[in-house]
């Protein structure tokens, strides 16, 4: 992976790191392509358990590189309605691919997560933020609207009036405020360390069960009906139970990992 985006996989846990610290990890078109390449590489990776998404340096990402946009972005952005990546265009896929990845994705946010950087973080399943981080759906300040799946992802996290407030005002909120609003999952003084610890914890659990849980969570947030979600729960659980050769194996697992549930 080129220097703009670093990809490291160790013991089933991948780290995808934006690496333009001198630009506060601003997103130019090469970076977009490399983020998508990293996602596609991980989607095909056997044994993957969890992903940590972060930015090197002082900030997660300040969003679109306006200089790059001015120097040739107009042509690239001229046909955003084209569906080049399934239901999405390239820029929407940059964020949506993390929600679609079979394993949990954790974003570690320090410094800034603005505009496109915020939308990239919204694609993660979990966002761990520093208390003094600065987050914003910032596009309105530039006469634009969020176009990296921001509205699709945001509506799953916050009340509709909060979403409208964030979209209309472009206001910047702290990590603490983001937690209160639902933009962030939890706070940590060192988000990257906390994200790595959580990824390791997830990686220690049954990979089949974790993937099933993510499929169910995606179905729930996508608006599956109660009957469909109940059926999906039953199907996922049946598949997990069938994967054990003997009931004794499952009980032995419970004895080892969950003794509180045994008489």
Helix proportion range: 40-55%
Spell out the CATH superfamily of the largest domain: 2-enoyl-CoA Hydratase, Chain A, domain 1
The strand count comes to 9
Treating each run of at least 4 consecutive H or I residues as one helix, how many helices? 11
CATH C-level class of the largest domain: Alpha Beta
User: For the terminal residues, how far apart are their CA atoms?
Assistant: 51 Å
Structure description:
Helix 1 (29-43) runs parallel beside helix 3. This protein has 263 residues and is an alpha/beta fold. It has two domains: 5-203, 2-enoyl-CoA Hydratase, Chain A, domain 1, CATH 3.90.226; 207-261. Helix 1 links the parallel strand 2 and strand 3 (50-55). Mean pLDDT is 91; it is low at 259-263. Helices cover 46% and strands 14% of the residues.
Structural key phrases:
alpha/beta, six-stranded mixed sheet, three-stranded mixed sheet, 11 helices
Write the layout of secondary structure elements.
Blueprint: E1 5-10, E2 13-18, H1 29-43, E3 50-55, H2 66-76, H3 90-100, E4 105-109, E5 112-114, H4 116-122, E6 126-129, E7 134-136, H5 150-154, H6 160-169, E8 173-174, H7 175-181, E9 186-187, H8 191-203, H9 207-221, H10 226-242, H11 247-257
Parallel strand pairs: 2-3, 3-4, 4-6, 5-7, 6-9
Antiparallel strand pairs: 1-2, 7-8
Helix pairs in contact: 1-3, 9-10
């Amino acid at each position: 992976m080129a220097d703009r985006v670093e990809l490291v996989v160790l013991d089933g846990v991948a780290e995808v790191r934006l690496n333009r610290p001198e630009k506060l990890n601003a997103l130019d078109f090469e970076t977009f392509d490399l983020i998508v390449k990293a996602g596609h590489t991980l989607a095909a990776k056997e044994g993957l358990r969890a992903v940590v998404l972060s930015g090197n340096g002082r900030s997660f990402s300040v969003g679109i590189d306006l200089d790059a946009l001015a120097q040739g972005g107009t042509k690239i952005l001229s046909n955003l309605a084209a569906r080049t990546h399934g239901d999405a265009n390239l820029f929407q896929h940059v964020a949506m691919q993390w929600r679609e990845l079979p394993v949990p994705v954790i974003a570690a946010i320090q410094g800034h997560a603005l505009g496109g950087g915020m939308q990239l973080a919204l694609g993660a399943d979990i966002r761990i933020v520093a208390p003094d981080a600065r987050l914003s759906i910032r596009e309105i300040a530039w006469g634009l609207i969020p176009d990296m799946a921001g509205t699709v992802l945001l509506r799953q996290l916050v009340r509709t009036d909060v979403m409208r407030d964030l979209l209309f005002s472009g206001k910047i909120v702290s990590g603490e405020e983001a937690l209160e609003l639902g933009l962030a999952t939890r706070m940590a003084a060192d988000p990257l360390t906390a994200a790595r610890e959580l990824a390791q914890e997830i990686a220690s659990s049954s990979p089949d069960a974790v993937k099933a849980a993510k499929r169910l969570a995606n179905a729930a947030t996508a608006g599956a009906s109660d009957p469909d979600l109940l059926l999906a729960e039953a199907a996922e659980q049946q598949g997990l139970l069938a994967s054990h050769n003997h009931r004794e194996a499952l009980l032995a697992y419970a004895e080892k990992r969950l003794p509180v549930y045994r008489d």
